[in-house]
Design brief:
The protein is an alpha+beta fold and 249 residues long. The chain has 3 helices and 11 strands. It has helices at residues 3-32, 197-205, 221-248; strands at residues 35-38, 47-55, 64-70, 80-84, 90-93, 97-101, 111-119, 125-127, 129-134, 139-142, 161-163.
């Protein structure tokens, strides 16, 4: 092969190699993005387990502002304690899980936080579907299951999955957290069984203050006392008159 032809072939080969490398890098960057959950050595029914969540930033112009997690069956937000995370971020319970959010992170900075779960359920794996929000309103949806998470090129947004070892021998589910019972007002003295304080108060206020009833006809007691006193006076007067007339005779 002549030297000019060889040089030309090498140049073409080099150009093709560079293009192939650029394509490989370009396609590898999106595939590297991920959202994960980790708990080293976690077993089913383990208690007080720290779960570390991480979510890669996929935006070149906006920072991450929060993550919403849809909890798997067997875990509720009441079972979680927020341990640590980005400065200023807080955990808030939702109807299907929780959110961890706060001031936006720097552009390109991944989000990472830790929660402690009271007890892991008796399962082989736990899926934590996650919605990742950005300061510009964008959302990454890490919600795809394993069988649908990647296309032919390795792209996708798989949901974080925590695989659990079998439960330890003798491990049992702990009792659920007690639910506070509604408080009942303590009946005041004189309240009839089954009668509430409010009902007793309403009944008492139906009677005018400072008066009483005889329990038969509802006649005020003062009237009865007045009538009795009048009868006594009249009876005494009649006795005095009869005594005087008898003495005169």
């Amino acid at each position: 092969m002549h030297r000019p032809t060889l040089v030309l072939s090498l140049r073409r080969f080099g150009a093709l190699t560079a293009v192939a490398l650029a394509v490989t890098v370009a396609t590898a960057v999106p595939a590297a993005a991920h959202a994960e959950v980790e708990a080293e050595g976690a077993r089913a029914l383990d208690q007080n387990v720290a779960l570390t969540f991480s979510a890669a930033s996929e935006s070149a112009s906006a920072g991450i502002t929060g993550l919403e997690v849809i909890l798997p069956k067997g875990i509720t937000a009441d079972d979680l304690t927020y341990k640590e995370g980005p400065e200023g971020w807080k955990l808030t319970a939702t109807s299907r899980g929780y959110t961890v959010s706060g001031p936006k992170l720097a552009v390109g900075e991944d989000a990472e936080y830790v929660v402690v779960v009271r007890q892991l359920p008796d399962a082989g794996k736990l899926v934590f579907k996650t919605l990742q929000s950005y300061s510009d309103g964008g959302v990454d949806r890490w919600i795809e299951l394993e069988d649908e998470a990647e296309d032919d090129h390795g792209h996708g947004h798989p949901a974080p999955v925590l695989r659990l070892k079998p439960a330890a021998p003798g491990a049992k589910p702990v009792a659920p957290s007690p639910t506070p019972e509604p408080t009942t007002a303590v009946p005041s003295p004189g309240t009839a069984p089954g009668e509430t304080v409010a009902e007793a108060t309403d009944t008492a206020t139906d009677t005018p203050t400072g008066t009483g009833t005889d329990g038969d006809g509802g006649v005020p007691l003062a009237v009865l006392l007045g009538v009795g006193a009048g009868v006594a006076v009249l009876g005494g007067g009649a006795w005095w008159l009869r005594s005087r007339r008898g003495g005169s005779a």
